[in-house]
Amino acid sequence: MDYNLNILEKEGYIRRHREVSRGIELLAQSPVLGRWCQVPIIGQIAAGEPIPVPTPDTWDIAASSETLEVTEDLIRGRDGVYALKVKGSSMVDALINDGDIVLMQYVNAVENGEMAAVWLKAEKEATLKKVYSEPSRIRLQPANSQMQPMYVEPGNVEIQGRVIAVIRQLV
Predict the structure, then answer these.
(1) Is 90 considered catalytic here?
(2) Per the UniProt entry, what is one GO biological process (predicted)?
(3) 40 with 25, same domain?
(4) Can you say how many angstroms the Cα of residue 107 is from the centroid of all Cα atoms in its chain?
(5) d(Cα 148, Cα 33) in Å, to the nearest integer?
(6) How many domains does the chain have?
(7) What is the distance between the alpha carbons of residues 68 and 87, in angstroms, rounded to a whole number?
(8) SS3 at position 80
(9) Which of 18, 47, 67, 169 is the most exposed place for a label (fewest CB within 10 A)?
(10) 3-state helix, strand, coil in the chain (%, to 5)
C-alpha cells in the first residue's frame, strides 16, 4: 500500500500528512480533478420480468431531471451515454443487483453475449439481459441460474444500448 501511495505522491496526485492517521490530500492540480460529467438517469430497466417504460422515441435525455456525476474516464469519450436504475435480480451473477445503476451507451446492435437494454416492441416493455442471436430467434439470457432465458422474434427486439459500467448501491 505504501508503495502505491508513494507513487501517487511522487506523480503529484496526492499529498501525504504522515503525522495524521489516513492523512491523504487530493491535490488541486491533479489531472483527475475537474474531469467530471453529468449523465442523465432516464428511468428504470427491468432485470427480471420486463417492465413497461416510455417508448424509446419519447426518452428525452436532455430534459432528464435526475443526473449522475461520473468521472470522464468512466465514459472514455463515448457519445450517447445515459443511466438506468436496475429493478430486479436477473443479472445478479453478472454482479448487477436491484437498485444498482447501469451506465449505457446508446447503440442499436450488440455482439453475442453483450449486456444490453432491450426494448420488446409488441409488449412495450424493456429488460436488461445478455443478448444472443440464434438462427430464427433472439435469446435474452439472464445472468441468474434461477431464471430461464426469454426467446423472442428478431422483429420484436430493439437494442437500446449496451452496458458500459455498473455503479453499485451499497445501502
Answers:
(1) yes
(2) SOS response
(3) no
(4) 13
(5) 44
(6) 2
(7) 17
(8) coil
(9) 18
(10) 15, 40, 45
Q: CA-CA distance, 99 to 41, in Å (whole number)?
A: 13
d(CA 115, CA 2): 37
Amino acid at 45: I
Q: Catalytic: 129?
A: yes
66 and 24 in a single domain? The answer is no
Enter the C-alpha cell of residue 98. 436491484
Residue 126: all three cell numbers together: 424493456
* pLDDT digit string, tens, across residues 30-51: 555 557 888 888 888 888 666 5
* Distance from C-alpha of 121 to C-alpha of 138, rounded to nearest angstrom: 13
| Candidates 87, 89, 90, 145; catalytic one | 90
Grid cell in block for residue 155:
422483429
Sign of the Cα pseudo-torsion (56, 58, 63, 66, in order): negative
Q: Please tell me the pTM assigned to this model.
A: 0.73
- Annotated catalytic residue within 30, 85, 129, 145: 129
